[in-house]
Amino acid sequence: MASGQSRSSNQLVVPQANQALDQLKYEVAQELGIQIPQDGYMGYMATRDTGAIGGHITRRLVQIAEQQLSGGIGR
Q1: Which GO terms describe its molecular function (predicted)?
Q2: Nearest Cα to 40, choosing from 29, 31, 48, 51?
Q3: Are the beta carbons of 12 and 30 closer than 8 angstroms?
Q4: Contacts of 3 (CB under 8 A, 6+ apart)
C-alpha cells in the first residue's frame, strides 16, 4: 500500500491530491515520532497513533485553507 493506494472507500474530490496527502501523512507521522510500516498498511498500528496522525492532518488542512481564504501564502 505504500505506493499511494488506499483501502479507504473515500474518494478524493481532486484525485491528483492523493500524492500530496500521502506526503502530508508521512510528514505528520514523522513530526509526532510515529513510525508508519514500510508496506503502508496501518491496520496493526495503535488507534491512538492513527487518530493522532489524522487529527494533525485535519488541523493542518484547515490551517492551509484558512490562509488561502485570507489571502495568505501556503503553509
Answers
A1: double-stranded DNA binding
A2: 29
A3: no
A4: 40
- 46 in helix, strand or coil? coil
C-alpha cell at 32: 509526532
The domain spans of the chain are 15-71
CA 50 to chain centre: 10
Provide the strand spans (E) within the chain: none
Greatest mean pLDDT among 8-12, 14-18, 43-47, 71-75 lies in 43-47
Q: Check residue 1 and give its pLDDT.
A: 45
- Measure the CA angle with vertex 48, ends 54 and 21; round to 5°: 20
C-alpha span between 75 and 67 (Å, rounded):
8
Please determine, for residue 58, whether its predicted confidence score (pLDDT) is greater than 60: yes
As a residue count, the chain comes to 75
